[in-house]
Amino acid sequence: MHPACPHCKQSFEPEPGFYYGAMFVSYGINTALFLVFWVALLLIYPDYTLSLLLGILTAVVILSLPLSFRWSRSIWLALFVRFDPKAGNTLDS
Ligand SMILES: [Zn+2]
Prior knowledge:
The chain has two helices and no strands. By secondary structure, it is mainly α. Bound molecules: zinc ion (ZN).
């Protein structure tokens, strides 16, 4: 991860430990994934076993980790940093 945005110079580490809160966003993303895959399994294969469900959910979490990690950090940062479309405009500098 870059220390700051190469375009607008926004710091990606506003303070030490800033991204601890992203764990809550990640929790929400993973809960949504759990629900989607659980309902899909219920519809596709209603006689599923608990070990099959846990295996599928474990695989989903591991495979989605690169995306959910970055999404949760991006969402967490977007909650605290206002988007400024004029920041870093290369035509002005
Ligand atoms: Zn930027």
